[in-house]
Write a structure and sequence with these properties.
The complex is a heterodimer of chains A (about 500) and B (about 180). By secondary structure, chain A is an alpha+beta fold. Helices cover about 40% and strands about 20% of the residues of chain A. Chain B contains seven helices and seven strands. In chain B, β1, α4 and β2 form a beta-alpha-beta unit. The chains are: A alpha+beta (about 500), B alpha/beta (about 180).
């Protein structure tokens, strides 16, 4: 019996939670769950707070469950103390809800920079003066070390965050990230929002993953209210999700090469990305497909000439992309930069359980489309590419292989697309639901509690970046500063999705 | 590689014709620029992009301005790495409280004459994120905005027409 199943059996089941079990646990069981994480018997899917409770979602093979611990005294046993991937999630809970993590090893604030004018905004909020608090970075000791502070405003067209490098000459000794700059208080905005507003917010948590987030939110709502979207809607969602994956992978492959000053790849990948976006704009009415997926289905059917245009797009990509792959693979000066750079060792990948290309380039096979299969992926054949090397090159190759897989998937989606309605009414029924959806960056988790008036009581959305950002600090160690852009772009973590 | 380069030489460029400047943007800009600034800048503007809290959707479309279809640099614009080199701050957001000081300092670091272009619905009034404890609202709460380009996110075409209006004014080729 799996450790997760043993925990489920010992806890008190919570009614109306779909499709995976949720159980209330006491402190002893909570500690047992922490041990299961620390012993590598399960992986953390997410850890999040509520006014007087904490919740933890665990996965072990294909067994997923949510464990809830009431915190009447305002504290809970720290997960991060035993299982480092939970540290930042836990610091965010402390900042937002004011709950204490007993035994935590890192008690510095994370999202709260002291500028909100309020402390613990989602818990027992206290008004304070908005004054920037100083932030103690971790120290590095050694002869001739120097620090390089970067950000929050970066040199490129990218999101804001602060990187504190400590270097010895050209070699990075330590990188420490400080994030939270784009925290928008989405958890607070979600509470009490009607489903339309909440779906729009979910679609704007990380713009590059708007389809993945909208699907995750919609599926969580559908699970909570006990409905299933019409079959055609599932196929249209999958079509949009695979287009989103392809478009982002094109952007990333081009941008990674560009960070090694190989601009021709960016130019050509940029053309392919633009073609995908233009197709999406014409077929679904929005280039990024924002607000196209809604609870109950999709906002609109594919435009009438959409299938023909899609076949044209696929043909164009299949003509152009192999040449670009060949160019990437045969340019030794480029390979010199990507091979052996920024290695994420498989042991660390197993421990942090990062989703997407970060995990899969280091031997992880996890994919939400397989781990918690949802239609239409449960009936479509596809493989999840994995590699073992864990370097920048491997993360590029995972993307290349995933583009190929997505193109084949789109063929199958088009071939199997059923006729019929594309949306259904969401009933006014109270309940809670969890969904896991595979975005281009990795698995997006959505957990939602709704009341019987189609309003959100609580919503938690966990970006894949939470488990990837800390690993970026690990992979850059011992590399030269000039290789940081390559490493960073090969991870392409979301700031907005993480800061929420 | 040779094939790709040859293809670049033999095929017609993907770059599309320059769109007309946006009428509404022209009107908004009409009073903002004086003749001296126009002469100094010529038909060339350097842009420093600042994400002041965006969901990164606007960044994706701003990125697209550099692709072969829009090819922003042919019009005299280029993105620069430092506000010290910039004439234009292109700001997305809702402006978060955690980014306000960074935006203000970026603005102060930009030499005069300078313009601020707010990109996207959130940068105008906070958009979907308005009224949050962590959000100030639109970009104009912290820095003076010369041009708003709405949309969620605005398409590259729409951003381009707004920027061309800015360029026309800065270089004095209209009015």
């Amino acid at each position: 019996m799996s450790e997760v199943q043993a925990l489920i059996d010992q806890g008190t089941p919570v009614a109306n939670h779909q499709p995976v079990p949720r159980v209330r646990v006491h402190e002893g069981l909570w500690r047992q769950a922490i041990d299961a994480l620390a012993d590598g018997k399960s992986s953390l899917l997410s850890l999040w707070g509520a006014r007087e409770a904490v919740h933890m979602a665990l996965v072990d093979g294909d067994q997923i469950a949510v464990f809830s611990l009431a915190c009447p005294r305002g504290s809970f046993p720290s997960v991060g103390a035993e299982y480092p991937p939970a540290i930042r999630l836990e610091r965010a809970i402390v900042d937002l809800y004011g709950l204490e993590a007993d035994g935590a090893t890192d008690t510095r604030p994370w999202l709260d920079h002291g500028r909100w004018g309020v402390r613990h905004p989602l818990g027992r909020a206290n008004r304070t003066t908005a004054e920037a608090a100083s932030y103690p970075f971790l120290a590095s000791h050694g002869e001739g070390l120097h620090q390089i502070p970067v950000g929050p405003v970066h040199a490129g067209i990218i999101e804001p965050g602060h990187f504190r490098f400590t270097a010895s000459g050209e070699t990075v000794v330590r990188l420490e990230e400080r994030l939270g700059y784009v925290h928008k208080g989405i958890g607070g905005l979600m509470t009490g929002a009607d489903l339309g507003k909440a779906a729009r917010l979910a679609g704007r948590i990380s713009g590059d993953s708007t389809v993945a987030y909208a699907c995750a939110f919609a599926r969580a709502v559908e699970a909570a209210t006990g409905i299933e979207a019409p079959p055609r809607a599932h196929y249209l969602r999958a079509l949009m999700a695979e287009l989103e994956r392809i478009a982002n992978h094109f952007g990333d492959i081009g941008a990674i090469c560009n960070d090694a000053s190989f601009a021709i790849m960016l130019a050509h990948c940029g053309v392919l990305r633009e073609r995908v976006l233009r197709f999406a704009g014409a077929a679904f009415g929005h280039r990024l497909m924002m607000d196209c997926v809604t609870p109950g289905g999709v906002a609109a059917d594919l435009a009438p000439d959409g299938t023909t245009a899609l076949h044209q797009l696929l043909g164009e990509i299949r003509r152009a992309f192999p040449r670009l792959i060949e160019l990437y693979d045969r340019t030794t000066s480029l390979q010199d930069r990507t091979v052996g750079t920024g290695i994420l060792h498989s042991e660390l990948a197993r421990k942090f359980a990062p989703g997407g290309y970060v995990g899969r380039a280091s031997g992880r096979t996890f994919d939400a489309r397989k781990a918690m299969p949802y239609p239409p992926y449960d009936t479509l054949a596809f493989t999840v590419p994995t590699r073992q090397e864990g370097d920048v090159n491997a993360r590029v190759w995972i993307r290349i292989d995933e583009v190929d897989e997505s193109l084949s998937l789109i063929d199958r989606i088009l071939a199997g697309m059923p006729a019929g309605p594309v949306k259904c009414e969401v009933p006014a029924a109270a309940g809670s639901g969890l969904a896991l959806v595979e975005g281009f960056r990795g698995d997006v988790l959505a957990w939602v509690e709704i009341d019987d008036d189609r309003k959100v009581e609580q919503c938690h959305l966990r970006d894949p970046s939470w488990f990837q950002w800390p690993l970026l600090e690990a992979v850059i160690e011992g590399n030269i500063v000039a290789d940081f852009p390559l490493c960073n772009k090969s991870f392409n973590c979301s700031y907005s999705g993480h800061d929420l | 590689m040779r094939k790709l380069l040859l293809q670049g030489l033999l095929h017609a460029p993907l770059t599309e014709p320059t769109p007309e400047s946006d009428e509404a943007a022209l009107a908004e800009l009409a009073d903002r620029l004086d003749a001296a600034a126009r002469r100094r800048l010529g038909r060339s503007l350097s842009i420093r992009e600042v994400d002041a809290g965006s969901c990164n959707g606007c960044e994706l479309e701003i990125h697209a301005l550099n692709n072969a279809f829009y090819d922003l640099e042919r019009l005299g614009f280029r993105f620069v790495a430092s506000p010290r080199h910039a004439d234009v701050l292109m700001v997305t957001g809702p402006l978060t409280k955690n980014m306000r000081e960074a935006l203000e300092r970026t603005y102060q670091a930009t030499p005069d004459p300078k313009w601020v272009v707010a990109i996207g619905d959130c940068a105008i009034n906070g958009g979907e994120f308005a009224n949050s404890y962590a959000v100030e609202g639109g970009v104009a709460v912290a820095v003076p905005v010369d041009l708003h380009i709405p949309g969620c996110p605005p398409t590259p075409g729409r951003i381009l027409t707004g920027l061309i209006a800015l360029l026309d004014h800065a270089s004095g080729t209209t009015n």
